[in-house]
Design goal:
Blueprint: E1 6-8, E2 12-14, E3 20-27, H1 33-50, H2 56-80, H3 91-103, E4 110-116, E5 120-126, H4 147-166, E6 173-181, H5 185-196, H6 198-201, E7 214-216
Antiparallel strand pairs: 1-2, 3-5, 3-6, 4-5, 4-7
Helix pairs in contact: 1-2, 3-4
């Protein structure tokens, strides 16, 4: 299996081998297409402008900040939309998703934390659990499972089982995922806080520990 470092859906995705990833995926139809189109058009236009910056370091820094801003707006849409599917608010469905998230913990990734909201999931995983000292040579990574494949293994079964419980057919998850790899410890801490405090920010609970849809492996 060839290790992919880059793949593209409607947004570009960078896959660093053995990296820690912050991922968000959502229910199909959870954001109105017109709203999503407006957001992506604004993002795409900004990217084109920033790519004209000659200084590589400045360009990359601004592109990274732009991507963070895009995600903040994307996540804000998910939290504010009152219409659309909210299947994940049902205990039976969130339970199915939890089972699939934990299914590959310790095998394909280290499951650090997640929060399951009514229409989307925030997830933080480290894929270095797949690596060992003998894999220093990149040619030994033929069995490495990339992030896009990991997400398929989570989303595929959870979609089938959830549709079965709900008595539905058709697409359950949106095909697009938002993902970014963690660059340093500060970013890691910020992402963990962001994920766990999502239901607090939404006014559902006072502290994240009281939210049934949140998990943190290293909770004291």
């Amino acid at each position: 299996m060839k290790v992919k470092r880059f793949y593209r859906q409607r947004l570009p995705h960078i896959q660093q081998v053995g990296a820690t990833f912050f991922v968000t995926f959502r229910l199909y139809g959870s954001i109105p297409k017109v709203k999503l189109y407006e957001l992506k058009e604004k993002y795409t236009t900004a990217v084109i402008t920033l790519k004209n910056i000659k200084d590589k370091k400045e360009r990359n820094q601004k592109l990274f900040r732009l991507r963070k801003e895009y995600f903040a707006n994307y996540d804000r849409l998910l939290d504010r939309i009152s219409a659309g599917p909210t299947h994940l608010s049902e205990d039976s469905i969130s339970g199915i998703v939890k089972k699939q998230l934990h299914r590959f913990d310790g095998e394909l990734y280290d499951l650090i934390c997640y929060t399951i909201m009514s229409n989307h999931v925030h997830l933080l995983i480290s894929t270095d659990v797949q690596l060992n000292e003998e894999m220093v040579d990149m040619n030994l990574l033929e069995n490495y499972v990339n992030l896009d494949e990991i997400l398929k293994r989570i989303k595929g079964p959870s979609a089938v089982y959830s549709n079965r419980v709900l008595g539905l057919e058709g697409q359950f998850w949106d095909r697009e995922n938002y993902d970014v790899y963690i660059r340093n410890e500060k970013m890691m801490d910020n992402v963990i806080s962001y994920i766990l405090n999502n239901p607090v920010k939404a006014g559902i609970v006072e502290t994240w520990e009281k939210y049934n849809g949140s998990y943190y492996k290293y909770e004291d």
